[in-house]
Amino acid sequence: MSIARKPFHLVLSALVLASVWQSAPAKSPAANDGTAQMQAASSLSFNGARYAHRWSKGTQNEFTPVGQENLSKWQDMITLVPRQDVQDGGALAGLAEALLAQYKGAGKIIKTDSVPLTADKPAEHLIVALLPGKGFFETVFVRLKLVDGVGVMAIYAHRNYGEKAAEDFGAWIQANGPTVERAWMSWDGIPKPAALNALPQSP
Predict the structure, then answer these.
(1) b/e map of 19-50 (b: 16 or more CB within 10 Å)?
(2) Taking the model in full, what pTM does it have?
(3) Tens place of pLDDT for every residue, the chain, 203 residues?
(4) What one-character DSSP code corresponds to residue 162?
């Protein structure tokens, strides 16, 4: 996949992360259940829709619903990025701060929030941002949480295209923003990092 086809928000985040943290270590060849792990992460269910795995490169994994197979013209996408170098609450907060700074420079922050640490669950962080692109407006809901002790960037993105993209974005966020946020922050379908790492790499 070329840079032009990459989701705009992850092009931005990759620039930040490359300068802030070391690259994630290579996947261990010792895993003997790769097929089962891959199958566990190949299909996701979120907010009443089924998302199929479309593309993976490195640790970045993309999923879109049925009918949105064209990665140059999608409307809804889930992107999951496990970060092996983020393994505690402090590192997760640092990742959230780095992404927030990048999004501030590239678009408009709509909302930020954090779920505090409890005895049963580590803290989580949320960034909702509007990122303008060439011919589209992209709304991103970025959830950062620890899964099996590994930080995961879980991103739900929605795009509006065309000359009225800004107007359509306003109508969409007003009608859907709170509902999507609640669904995204309560979603328990994020695959384990090992399952994401077992997905096939794209050419």
Answers:
(1) eebeebeebeeeeeebeebbebbbebebeeee
(2) 0.83
(3) 222 334 444 443 443 343 333 333 444 444 445 565 556 678 999 999 999 999 999 999 999 999 999 999 999 999 999 999 999 999 999 999 999 999 999 999 999 999 988 888 889 999 999 999 999 999 999 999 999 999 999 999 999 999 999 999 999 999 999 999 999 999 999 999 999 999 999 98
(4) S
